[in-house]
Amino acid sequence: MAIGLVDSGVGGLTVLREIRRLCPTADISYLGDSARFPYGTKTMEQVESFLLEGLDFLAEIGVEAAVVACNTASAAGLEAARRRYSFPILGVIEAGAKPAVEATRCGRIGVVATTATVRSGAYTKAIRGHLESAVILHRSGQELVGEVEAGRMEPSRTGKMVLNLLSPLVAAGVDVLVLGSTHLAVVRDVFRRFVGTEITVIDPAKETATEVAALGLGNGSGKVAIFVTGDPDAFRRAAGAVYCGEPPDVKKIFLPGGSGPAEENYT
Predict the structure, then answer these.
(1) Tens digit of pLDDT for each residue in 124-142?
(2) Is 176 helix (H, G, I), strand (E, B) or coil?
(3) Which of 6, 8, 105, 205 could form an SS bridge with 14, CB 3.0 to 4.6 Å?
(4) For the segment 49-60, what is each residue's pLDDT rounded down to a tens digit?
(5) What order of strands is seen across the sheet that includes strand 108-113?
(6) Which domains does the chain have, with CATH numbers?
(7) 140 to each of 40, 79, 238, 258, how far by Cα in Å?
């Protein structure tokens, strides 16, 4: 019973990694829409369309549940996706919001996300659904997301970018930080090093994997299939640090809204 994941690029591999940890025999099909990365600079209408095209592909190859492993896509199209498909579809925003509320002591929560996710207000809505009095402070980490997708994670430069993102949040007194982009989970340890023990860092990937495990779809052969809409070699290079080793074969496909014909043979 296959589980599908869809993301704008390599970031959702952080979710795949956690699912593999909890469900090692689950069959997983992953779609990285790298040809149209970044989602975070697009309109919500565009991202919803991209998401539905990606999920159509996953439905066609036979997944029985799907994870929108992208915060921007979750903000833009999760509800539309749930109306469109009969199988379970999970997002990553609620998976970040609930543990953030459980962890906060002062009700001040920082969120670092893409520009589009910040503009959407999705985290504010999700967090205040659990704690109406919460104060949510956002920072756009769009540039850092791009660095992760390109595989440019030089320690000194990455550290400076993370510090720039964190400084206003630390000054504002947040005690919880949500990594509101799955790409940012790739450099989770850098965030944790800068905030120390006083600020709890929430990585929605782990919470999402727990929700997937609860679906009971882990009785497969453990096969992982990765599809991309962009350059497979570039994706493979960028994915190495995320996947913790050489990722499986990466196959290029074309979605209907992309620049080429649909791939005829998916398997």
Answers:
(1) 999 999 999 999 999 999 9
(2) strand
(3) 205
(4) 999 999 999 999
(5) 135-140, 108-113, 176-180, 200-202
(6) 2-91+207-252 (3.40.50.1860), 93-203 (3.40.50.1860)
(7) 9, 23, 21, 27
